[in-house]
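quick one, two chains, predict together pls
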Amino acid sequence: MIGTSSRIGVVVFGVLALVAGGCGTPTGPSAMLAQVAVAPSSVVAGMASEATVMLSGPAPSGGVSVTIASSDGAATLPPSITINAGTTSASFTVQTRVVAADTSATITVTVGAQTRAATLRIMAPLARPATLDAILIEPTLLRAGQSARGTVLLTSAAAASGFTVNLKSSNSVAGVPVSVSVPSGAVSATFNVTTAAVELDTQLEITASAGDVARTVSLRVTP
Amino acid sequence: MQRMRRLRIALILAVVDVLVGCGGPSSPTAPSPRTVAAVARVDVDTSVTGGQIAHGVVTLSDAAPEGGVTINLTANNAAGIPPSTLTIPAGATSGSFEIATTRVATTTDVTITARTGDVSRTSLLRVKIDPAALKPAATYTLGFSSLRENRAAFTTYSDWGFTVSVVSADWIAITTYGNPIPFVEFNSVAGQTTTGEIRITAGGAPFWFNSIDLYSSTTKIPYVFEGSLSSDPVFTVVNVLGNTFGSFARTPNPRPDAAIDVLVIRLSNPSAPCCSNPMGVDNIVLSR
């Protein structure tokens, strides 16, 4: 038999759970700050880059306010952004100033007590050949059988002959093409990541490489 | 009894139908209100060099009726003078006009207002400084001589009508060294490159940048000079001064003849992996 006080407790708990759940937001109330990525992560001074802040789950009702800071005045950005309710990420522009020496700026994002950082390399305006800059995959959490979209980014536009980036998966659960080609004049190319059936949560890595530069991103496949 | 109730309900429904006027073919059509052409928008050139003619267009909400529409035009600053009225002829939906501008000493924003009756719309015209009409009259050196407290935070300094403001990095005043003392500097921690930026203005008035003394304790001095006039870029100088080994090096502006109203000095302080490095400036030579 459940007593009156127990019933009240159950009701109060239920109300609190509904409030915390953001009126039907599909995930739990505690969307954690997952990461911040800057792409491209190297720019010629005076050019802009784009930073993306990602949460571990959809932002609750009212959204999530993110405070942003740069460690160096060569990179300027908005002081804050909001990740809208129900979404998992938001982007902002990082504008760089013309500088005469290569400079690194640490872009720091803060939500409450959680902080994540990414580094933007600002290169003095000298001619440099393109190299592999970054690999991005979205989403990075997949159910078996789902596919994801991958992107490779170069530090500058590909030369007339294009730019080939080799791809490799650390586990056959995720399949990627052997390579992807960035066409002449472009700074990025996309590819498809497919996944096979799994019985357990599987963590794996997708690696992009070109010459002596390699970049890796983690992927998680769930049953 | 029930029959009576049904009749009463039918009667009420009929009355309601008439009152609401359900829009059937027999409903009388109310006369539509007569539309009046009003100012929908006014557009003017974004910017013009003072002394030149700018152009504007007034667009009406509807075609002008018989007799045309008279638009009243005003400006909130004498730097831009539109005609007092503009008549848009019958049947037309827009009309253009010219704005006479005067030479200005500082970049001036003029609001142009177009009005018909109680409807008004505005547009902004920026009247820019005409650099061809300018000549420097005197030369000034900003030597930070009024800074007295050693290692005090430096954020802004005003002298001779010029203002030096820090944009990035933590700058301090140094009263124990300079060319002559004092000067202002910022530090970069070991192994990092830190950007220090200052901005110089003369209250919006144009001026000329001749040279600056740059200092670094142990490193080369990568620097950028950016000059702009009425928000338009005039010059960007990107260069690297060799290691001065702690001395001040007079660094000329290769564009001393170019009038500007904002000057940005941006220094990159590439400290060595072993040690932090101070870098700074003294004697900013300007003309006005």
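Residues 139-287 of chain B form a domain with the Jelly Rolls fold (CATH 2.60.120.1350).
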